[in-house]
């Protein structure tokens, strides 16, 4: 099985561009369909009534908007595949990804570097997303003609994730060539998973749901006749969000952002990014939470803190 998987990841080297495009388009569409459609069906259709109180905005996007988002997602997947084919052709000519490694033994020979590379790729992907995203918000022309398409989703859903204008899709997936800048060998599987990470990551950030993290409790009793250990867990009640100022409450009691689970914090931060920004007369606007993670927003002062 290991040899089969390795062969699946490395056979592209000998493929012509058209066949490479067709194969990658099929694979990327499959990854997109399984991730986005499954998530949407589970959360927004099958468990809609059960999870309704955990939705950050109790309203649901219109079917018309969801269909538009789906069509834009398909366009974005095609653009990703085109960028991969262009990189494939440039790589064959020695222009990019000269550090790409197809060696099946790279883990045995470069363990420390591979671990470092995984961390670097996450840092690079987040930095690229933060600064290109902030760029699209910094110039009125770019926002109105390009990024505003994505912000039609004031109440985001999974399909909002890569519902991009073609220019924004090209810019977003341009993080891929950045792997060429790394000083050591980059295994081909990391390039593939980095590409798929860019593809599927936005799906979960745009869920717009409070995803609770169960709280575990351990109790030990030495009462007669026998001592026992009891492990229990508690799922917190749903939160409610004031859409105007982002204030978080649970059972009419204020809740701090850091009290939420990791996934809920990520969904909340991007929900605020979509639902709260102020337009100014000159066409500029104040936006918050440009990153997928809070690192760059905290560093650059663009994180939104809900009032207590």
UniProtKB/TrEMBL annotation:
<keyword id="KW-0472">Membrane</keyword>
<dbReference type="InterPro" id="IPR006694">
    <property type="entry name" value="Fatty_acid_hydroxylase"/>
</dbReference>
<feature type="domain" description="Fatty acid hydroxylase">
    <location>
        <begin position="119"/>
        <end position="212"/>
    </location>
</feature>
<dbReference type="Pfam" id="PF04116">
    <property type="entry name" value="FA_hydroxylase"/>
</dbReference>
<dbReference type="GO" id="GO:0016491">
    <property type="term" value="F:oxidoreductase activity"/>
</dbReference>
<protein>
    <recommendedName>
        <fullName>Fatty acid hydroxylase domain-containing protein</fullName>
    </recommendedName>
</protein>
<dbReference type="GO" id="GO:0016020">
    <property type="term" value="C:membrane"/>
</dbReference>
<feature type="transmembrane region" description="Helical">
    <location>
        <begin position="112"/>
        <end position="131"/>
    </location>
</feature>
<keyword id="KW-1133">Transmembrane helix</keyword>
<dbReference type="GO" id="GO:0005506">
    <property type="term" value="F:iron ion binding"/>
</dbReference>
<dbReference type="GO" id="GO:0008610">
    <property type="term" value="P:lipid biosynthetic process"/>
</dbReference>
<feature type="transmembrane region" description="Helical">
    <location>
        <begin position="25"/>
        <end position="47"/>
    </location>
</feature>
<keyword id="KW-0812">Transmembrane</keyword>
<dbReference type="InterPro" id="IPR050307">
    <property type="entry name" value="Sterol_Desaturase_Related"/>
</dbReference>
């Amino acid at each position: 099985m290991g040899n089969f998987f390795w062969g699946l990841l490395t056979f592209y080297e000998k493929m012509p561009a058209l066949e490479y495009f067709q194969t990658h388009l099929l694979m990327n569409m499959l990854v997109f369909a399984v991730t986005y459609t499954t998530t949407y069906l589970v959360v927004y259709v099958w468990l809609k009534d059960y999870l309704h109180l955990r939705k950050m905005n109790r309203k649901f996007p219109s079917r018309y908007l969801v269909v538009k988002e789906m069509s834009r997602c398909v366009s974005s997947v095609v653009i990703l595949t085109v960028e991969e084919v262009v990189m494939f052709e440039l790589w064959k000519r020695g222009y990019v990804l000269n550090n790409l490694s197809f060696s099946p033994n790279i883990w045995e020979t470069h363990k420390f570097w591979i671990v470092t590379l995984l961390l670097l790729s996450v840092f690079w992907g987040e930095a690229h997303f933060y600064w290109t995203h902030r760029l699209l918000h910094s110039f009125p022309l770019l926002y109105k003609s390009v990024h505003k398409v994505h912000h039609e989703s004031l109440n985001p859903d999974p399909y909002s994730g890569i519902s991009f204008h073609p220019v924004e899709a090209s810019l977003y997936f341009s993080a891929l060539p950045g792997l060429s800048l790394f000083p050591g060998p980059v295994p081909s599987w990391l390039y593939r998973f980095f590409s798929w990470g860019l593809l599927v990551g936005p799906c979960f950030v745009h869920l717009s749901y409070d995803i609770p993290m169960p709280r575990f409790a351990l109790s030990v009793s030495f009462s007669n006749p026998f001592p026992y250990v009891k492990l229990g867990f508690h799922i917190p009640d749903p939160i409610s969000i004031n859409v105007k100022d982002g204030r978080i409450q649970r059972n009419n009691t204020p809740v701090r952002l850091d009290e939420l689970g990791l996934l809920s914090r990520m969904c909340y931060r991007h929900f605020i990014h979509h639902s709260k920004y102020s337009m100014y007369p000159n066409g500029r606007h104040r936006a918050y939470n440009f990153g997928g993670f809070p690192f760059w927003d905290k560093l650059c002062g663009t994180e939104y803190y809900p009032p207590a």
